[in-house]
């Protein structure tokens, strides 16, 4: 009997409903477009140039990061369980003539059973706070990366400030995101994510925070991990 998918049907439906707007830089996905150069620069700054490397983007959605990494010369597989965003990602890559990126509707856990130790770099951005069992995704990412390879995560901290900024501020006041995008109880403290990583055999290498100024409408990376934060981890060499 197949194991149940580590997915929330309501979360998949939510992002599928908005899929047609994924590549509109002024849509609900504007924050993803704005932070993408920051994410990509941080990844390459630590893992090195992506050209010619096998890269996996877990929870790729409409393909904003996956496509950007392919443009850097990586061979990218983007995976997600929401069908409509994947179709949007495939169509956009085709329309733009982007080589080196493919997409599959499959979970990280299922892919880990097929392709253990296959990828030089694995990314899992803005996804862990949307699944029932984030530790399972972290473990799958650790299985999928090669020994010595890099795994990058980004998610939201769980504390009163993050509730105020990421839900009240971003969804209700500034309307940067649709209401209901995030559920506070699913936010993950850095200490919790660090424990998941250790348990999966991933060594934490670097942490960064992501901040936003609503007046200048600018994002930047900083040392403040109290709301949005990124983890860079490595699997131990064999």
Give the topology, please.
Layout: H1 9-17, H2 30-47, E1 54-58, H3 64-71, E2 75-80, H4 83-96, E3 101-105, H5 108-114, E4 119-125, H6 134-144, E5 145-156, H7 160-173, H8 190-200, E6 202-213, E7 218-222, E8 228-235
Parallel strand pairs: 1-2, 1-4, 2-3, 4-5
Antiparallel strand pairs: 5-8, 6-7, 6-8
Helix pairs in contact: 2-3, 5-6, 6-8
Keywords: Methyltransferase, S-adenosyl-L-methionine, Transferase, Ubiquinone biosynthesis
Family: Belongs to the methyltransferase superfamily. UbiG/COQ3 family.
Organism: Tepidimonas fonticaldi
Notes on the protein architecture:
It catalyses: a 3-(all-trans-polyprenyl)benzene-1,2-diol + S-adenosyl-L-methionine = a 2-methoxy-6-(all-trans-polyprenyl)phenol + S-adenosyl-L-homocysteine + H(+); a 3-demethylubiquinol + S-adenosyl-L-methionine = a ubiquinol + S-adenosyl-L-homocysteine + H(+). Pfam families: Methyltransf_23. The chain has 238 residues and is of the alpha/beta class. It has helices at residues 9-17, 30-47, 64-71, 83-96, 108-114, 134-144, 160-173, 190-200; strands spanning 54-58, 75-80, 101-105, 119-125, 145-156, 202-213, 218-222, 228-235. It has a single domain (9-235), classed as Vaccinia Virus protein VP39 (Rossmann fold). Strands 3-2-1-4-5-8-6-7 form an eight-stranded mixed sheet. Helix 6 links the parallel strand 4 (119-125) and strand 5 (145-156). The chain is globular and about 45 Å long. The two termini are 33 Å apart. The model has no long low-confidence stretch (mean pLDDT 93).
